[in-house]
UniProtKB/TrEMBL annotation:
Gene3D superfamilies: FAD/NAD(P)-binding domain. Transmembrane segments: none annotated. This is Tryptophan halogenase. It comes from Thalassotalea profundi. InterPro entries: FAD/NAD-bd_sf, Flavin-dep_Halogenase_NPB, Flavin_halogenase, Trp_halogen.
Length: 504
């Protein structure tokens, strides 16, 4: 199928349905890169946005770089803070492993400290009682513990990746303004009919006031409704319910602390986990749980207890989540972005990253295919692999949790509905003396690097408990440990306190 494209292989006219984070991200990227395309975004005031999703990975920085917006241009307006990574608290009950930090990447780690981390993991696997807790090997773990932001002084020659926390409603408003500055036309209205061509592609959307919006290409950002991709084009949906049990969340704000954390905190509760996201003016909190194990009232009470807000009159909001993905993210003349294409529960805060990858990669494939669907299948395969790679990593948290207090955690640990890829990764962890090398060798690198897998598995204390050995050159090991600690501390001297960084 050949689309109606301009001389530069871009659609002449494009309609985006939905004005949540996904819709406005798509509008910004398309408007700044496809300058000759007429772009209209329609959003429904009566339906509104989901209004959660306040933590990101470093992909949000890539997105802002791509549209030419600096941190200082958007962060204050969105009450945004910096994020070094995520602390996972109480997912393991093994002594010494009750908590660990999953950092974003820093060059100093890869060059200097991660090799020691892996050496000690291998020693630990053989029964030597050395320190293989990830928190002692990563720069951003040190930064987080000391409330230091992720942007170094100019003289620090190593790169460091970081994410953000932000108010999702304010981010949407910022992105809406910015896209309109770049020529995107915003229409407020509700789509109540979708018109198709004879070949099954999309022709137009009709709004409740009878406005007809025709286009050559459509982007479905209508959230869990998936109005175009699933409801109209009937693209199949694969649920992840058999290995990701959580389907609900209850959310509420709380007062921000004096020292502003530089991390998201994920604390395991009885039947799921709670996030705590620091913004400049409040904490965003939420309990993500499975309604098969706990009902919404019990979940709200447990979240309030966890936050010390049992008697508070702060309102909580309850949400349902659909966890899985479509089989095709690009089909005919439609691309699904955001919740309309799928969602892997928010444990690693990856939804915005997936939206960014989807739009950026689509633009590249569409252009390379000269405006045809030549690369549709390859694109769908790539995006599915990204979703499945993230799913496997998130599933691994549940599979390897070290709790035993409720049926929820026991069922998660006993669940064998996991992908072959995840089974092979877990087998390597237990059996390989070169986990990182073997992950490369057996082509198991998906959305996460071996060091991230090692952080999780070592962080939960997934090590053999028998076969403890004593003979080891512990004096050399202790010297090395002191040197590493000092190295990371000295790197840390190049970073400012979080609140000072936010003044810039
Ligand atoms: C509990 C929870 C926690 C999350 N946490 C994170 C996180 O920490 N990090 C992260 O990256 N992501 C997170 N997410 C995901 C994140 O919220 C979404 O990916 C993000 O907000 C994008 O949503 P969206 O734009 O796809 O959908 P929505 O925000 O739902 O927007 C849908 C849009 O479509 C419009 N619309 C729908 N139907 C019609 C119609 N008929 N006509 C016109 N317009 C229509 C709506 O009005 C709205 O503008 C979380 C999600 C949940 C459920």
């Amino acid at each position: 199928m050949l689309n109606n494209v301009n001389n530069d292989s871009k659609p002449k006219k494009l309609v985006i349905v939905g004005g949540g984070t996904a819709g406005w991200m798509a509008a910004n990227l398309l408007a700044t890169q496809w300058k000759d395309t007429e772009i209209i975004l329609v959003e429904s005031q009566e339906i509104g946005i989901i209004g959660v999703g306040e933590g990101s990975t470093p992909h949000l920085k890539l997105f802002f770089d791509a549209i030419g917006v600096a941190d200082a241009d958007w962060m204050p307006e969105c009450n945004a803070t910096y994020k070094n990574g995520i602390t996972f608290d109480k997912w393991s009950t093994i002594e010494g492993f009750e908590s660990y930090f999953h950092p974003f990447a820093a060059q100093t780690d890869d060059i200097f400290t991660v090799p020691h981390f892996f050496n000690n993991i291998y020693a630990r696997m053989q029964g030597y009682q050395v320190d293989a807790h990830p928190d002692d090997y990563f720069l951003e773990s040190y930064l987080s513990k000391n409330n230091l932001g992720p942007i170094p002084d100019e003289c620090f020659p190593f790169g460091i990746a970081y994410g953000y926390h932000f108010d999702s409603a304010l981010l949407g408003q910022f992105l809406s303004k910015n896209a309109q500055k770049h020529g995107v036309k915003r229409i407020v209205g509700t789509v109540n009919e979708v018109l198709m061509h004879n070949d099954g592609s999309l022709n137009a959307v009709k709004l409740n006031d009878n406005t007809l919006l025709t286009a050559d290409f459509f982007i479905d950002c209508s959230g869990f409704r998936s109005l175009l991709m699933q409801s109209t084009l009937k693209v199949n949906y694969q649920s992840f319910k058999d290995n990701l049990y959580n389907d609900s969340a209850v959310v509420m704000p709380s007062e921000i602390s004096q020292t502003l954390p530089v991390e998201t905190k994920s604390t395991a509760l009885s039947n799921g986990w709670a996030w705590q996201i620091p913004l400049r003016n409040r904490f965003g909190n939420g309990y993500v749980y499975s309604s098969d194990y706990i009902n919404s009232e019990q979940a709200e009470v447990e979240l309030r207890q966890h936050l010390g807000l049992l008697d508070s009159d702060i309102q909580a909001r309850h949400l349902q989540m659909k966890v899985g993905r479509v089989e095709k993210h690009w089909h005919k003349n439609c691309l699904a972005v955001g919740l309309s294409q799928g969602f892997i529960e928010p444990l690693e805060a990856t939804a915005i990253a997936l939206s960014f990858n989807t739009i950026a990669q689509f633009m590249q494939y569409f252009h390379e295919g000269k405006g045809t669907n030549k690369f549709e299948a390859a694109f769908n395969q790539d995006i599915n692999a990204r979703f499945d790679g993230i799913r496997d990593y998130v599933v691994c948290h549940y599979k390897t949790n070290q709790r035993n207090d409720t049926a929820y955690w026991r069922d998660n640990a006993a669940n064998n509905h996991i992908s072959e890829t995840l089974k092979r990764i877990l087998h390597l962890w237990q059996n390989s003396q070169n986990f990182a090398g073997d992950m490369h060798k057996y082509n198991l690198i998906g959305s996460y690097q071996p060091k991230s897998w090692a952080c999780m598995l070592a962080g939960y204390g997934v090590f053999p408990t028998d076969n403890v050995k004593q003979s080891f050159d512990y004096s050399a090991y202790h010297q090395e440990k002191v040197a590493l600690k000092d190295f990371i501390r000295r790197c840390g001297l190049n970073f400012k306190k979080h609140h000072e960084l936010l003044k810039n």
